Amino acid sequence: MNLNTLRIGDLIVREKGPFSTHYIVWIGWRNGVRIVAENHSRQGVRYTSLEEALGGQSIRRFEKFGGNEFERRLVTLRINKMLGRSYDLVVFNCEHFARWISTGQFVSKQVKVAINIMLVFGALMLTNKDSNIRRFGLFLLCIGGMVRLSQR
């Protein structure tokens, strides 16, 4: 899969930081411009050019649209319903948005990994002799548990 074989609803995953990626939904060519949809951290759900969405970062991988051909024809309708919706790192980030377009599910593997790391460190901190570290571990477990529940 490459830029020349993308079809509407396919996902583009680009580098964002050392431990994160940015998810972009391919729309197609319009007036010689490659158009995509994304959930931007400051502007929310929007249509933009691929170049702007990439922001000078490299593409890590592509993911095929997760639905059938009928669902693929509904991609722009689904995006249009979300236009302007605000970004939220925990419950509606770029991956949540892109996977909802592709599969119909609000899922972020990046958030799940972060929650699991938080829960493991919280549990480990509970075994420490220092009461402040144990309290912080309990705090991490509580926050991680609440965030995990919000993901369901």
What report would you give on this structure?
- The chain is an alpha+beta fold.
- The protein has two domains: 102 residues, Alpha-Beta Complex (endopeptidase fold (from Nostoc punctiforme)); 40 residues.
- 42% of the residues lie in helices and 24% in strands.
- A five-stranded antiparallel β-sheet has the order 4-3-2-1-5.
- A hairpin with a 2-residue loop joins strand 1 and strand 2.
- Helix 5 runs antiparallel to helix 6.
- The longest helix has 20 residues.
- The radius of gyration is 18 Å and the shape is elongated.
- The chain starts with 10 loop residues before the first strand and ends with a helix.
- The relative contact order is 0.14.
List the SSEs and their pairings.
Elements: E1 11-17, E2 20-30, E3 33-40, E4 44-49, H1 50-54, E5 59-63, H2 69-72, H3 75-82, H4 94-103, H5 109-125, H6 131-150
Antiparallel strand pairs: 1-2, 1-5, 2-3, 3-4
Helix pairs in contact: 5-6
Any descriptors?
152 residues, endopeptidase fold (from Nostoc punctiforme)
Mean pLDDT: 89
Q: SSE string, helix = H, strand = E?
A: EEEEHEHHHHH
Main sheet: strands, sense, barrel? 5 strands, antiparallel
Strand order of the largest sheet: 4-3-2-1-5
- Give the beta-strand count: 5
Broad CATH class of the largest domain: Alpha Beta
Counting DSSP H or I runs of 4 or more residues, the number of helices is 6
- Known CATH architecture of the largest domain: Alpha-Beta Complex
Pick out the low-confidence regions. Answer: none
* Structural domain tally: 2
Radius of gyration: 18 Å
Q: Kindly identify the CATH topology of the largest domain.
A: endopeptidase fold (from Nostoc punctiforme)
Shape field: elongated
Percent of residues in β-strands = 15-25%
